[in-house]
Amino acid sequence: MHGYIPPDRFFPYLTWNDIAAMPDRDQVVIIQPCGAIEQHGPHLPLIVDSTIACGAIGAACDRLPADLPCYVLPPLYYGKSNEHQHFPGTISLRTETLLSVLHDVADSLYRAGFRRLILANAHGGQPQIMEMAAVDIHARYPDFWVFPVFIWRVPNETKSLLTETERDRGMHAGDAETSLMFALDRDRVRPHLAICEYPPPCANLFQTKGALTYSWLTNDISRSGVMGDATIATPEKGDRILASLAEGWAHAIIDVFQFAPPTASH
Asked: Would 14 be classed as within a structural domain?
């Protein structure tokens, strides 16, 4: 059941007695991987985002000091994926449903004495939901610190491995995700079906990606569901991306453990 997560870090393997006897629960880091079940083009399975969330966090946990208290919850496999709703197989939660689940999980953790929660999100369609949930949870419990982190935003070398076009225009099921899936679940990748398709550019300030964007759905800008170049993905790049993400995430987890809440001066 633990999948990519080291079994000694998998929260559900604990008993309630283990948790009741756990010292300094307010310092323990709890991680909630957040993914999605959504289309990723003809060459990748629906489970890409959930796989990446668990794979990166699991590899990071392998790098943590043995005495650092950190536990990983089961992944939230479903996310807000309605931008992909026109592609069969995509399963999407409503925004309010996902928010409710995140709040309910946080309530349960707070009752158990935990005070540090990382929302490790790998789906590009929901970082804003994670951020809203984090603020609202902290507003309800001022001593509960929540860290909403997109899986790709910890320090890592991924961008240096991509072409300029891929960095600027790639968004979904392209080089980075396909390469990483080679490293995490190679048997699920169908490289003979990989394609290159980028969203068409707009002739004004508002683009599909960047500082000024608009409310697109995937079928508005892609026929295949791919927004990037999957044909240039390689297992070698995937191994480097995974190692880099794991190192970045290990540092982030350690920082959360060492986090000292700020005190406003008056």
From this structure: no
The helix-helix angle for 95-111 and 127-140 (nearest 10°) equals 40
Q: What is the rounded average pLDDT for all residues in the chain?
A: 97
For residue 185 the two structure tokens come to: 């679940």
Contact 133, 99 (CB under 8 A): yes
CATH label of the domain that carries residue 148: 3.40.50.10310
In this prediction, residue 201 carries a pLDDT of 87
Q: Got the DSSP string for 55-94?
A: HHHHHHHTTS-TTS-EEEPPPB--B--GGGTTSTT-BB--
Q: What is the mean pLDDT of residues 162-167?
A: 97
φ and ψ of 201, to 5 deg: -70, 150
Range scoring the smallest mean pLDDT among 33-47, 50-64, 201-215, 230-244: 201-215
Dihedral sign of CA atoms 128, 35, 251, 233 in order:
negative
Q: What does pTM read for this prediction? A: 0.96
CA atoms of 131 and 146, how far apart (whole Å): 9
Range of the domain at 120: 28-257
Total structural domains in the chain? Answer: 1
